[in-house]
Amino acid sequence: MENLCKLDLGDTLIKELSCLIGHFPRLLYLHLRKCKNLRSVPSNILQLESLQICYLNDCSNLEIFPEIMEHSKGLSLRQKYLGRLELSNCENLETLPSSIGNLTGLHALLVRNCPKLHKLPDNLRSMQLEELDVSGCNLMAGAIPDDLWCLFSLQSLNVSGSNIDCIPGGIIRLSRLRTLIMNCCLMLKEIPELPSSLRRIEAHGCPLL
């Protein structure tokens, strides 16, 4: 199956994904949506040399996202290929590894509605993210690392539904940011000076502003 390009295991009862997935060098698209029994994925899932899109949405029992080794086979190629990673609606996901910053070619990271995720990892500054959506992740005060303000390619940021009480002043450094969404942040009291590049701002349901 060396020529396999798309693997769709969505809405199945699998509990684990075999480490043999690392033997699909031409896999472009990995779909694992609604795998309710899936608790973890093997560490070589992101060593696939051609992977472009990885969906792990609605895996309600997913607890662990693997570490990403900086010198793993194929990681240099990942800068060209892997563009989108989705981990939305993973109710038991508590952390993202700091090593996620090694995915330097990632353009879109969507980690929506993961209520046990309380903070973002450090070591983000090497990424080329254009879209970051962590809405509904229950981020606490101080949960946004300074590295986030080094994502100079970032164009869209969504922190809706979090418990942060302010947007850090470092946001002014995001010179390409066009969309900032902060809806339903019940503790949000302060928004600092924002980048002049912004074209869309939403802050509905923020009673303390």
Characterize the largest beta sheet: strand count, sense, and whether it forms a barrel: 9 strands, parallel
- Outline type: globular
Q: Give the SSE string.
A: EEEHEEEEEE
Provide the structure class.
mainly beta
InterPro entries: Leu-rich_rpt, LRR_dom_sf
Pfam families: LRR_1 (PF00560)
Keywords: Plant defense
Give a quick set of tags describing it:
1 helix, globular, mainly beta
What does this structure look like?
With 209 residues, this protein is mainly beta. The chain is 2% helix and 13% strand. The protein has one helix at 75-78; strands spanning 6-8, 29-31, 53-55, 84-86, 108-110, 131-133, 156-158, 179-181, 200-202. The protein has a nine-stranded parallel β-sheet with strand order 1-2-3-4-5-6-7-8-9, with no helix packed on it. Strand 3 (53-55), helix 1 and strand 4 form a beta-alpha-beta unit. The model is unreliable at 71-80 (pLDDT under 50).
